[in-house]
Amino acid sequence: xxxxxxxxxxxxxxxxxxxxxxxxxxxxxxxxxxxxxxxxxxxxxxxxxxxxxxxxxxxxxxxxxxxxxxxxxxxxxxxxxxxxxxxxxxxxxxxxxxxxxxxxxxxxxxxxxxxx
Length: 116
Known about the structure:
Elements: E1 8-10, H1 18-34, E2 38-42, H2 51-66, E3 70-74, H3 78-86
Parallel strand pairs: 1-2, 2-3
Helix pairs in contact: 1-2
């Protein structure tokens, strides 16, 4: 795990092991004390992702959210992108799901829109 850039986490590969995931969650806690709102997580080394990797990344995202940090994955392989899409976690890539606005985008409300 690279800690040269304080707002960048680098995930080792080719798979994410439980001990490495725990260290990444701990790093999120340290970053939270420094106050970044978004942390980039380089996952380009995850060349053999599986559901265990997706579970670890989801837990990492939850840990970040608990600290008020948005986690955004970068460098995802097509295989990892496909798995994240399959389980509904494509928003971790900073991309909107089909038909959904991008994260952090509020849809406009027109004065004549009926209440929900």
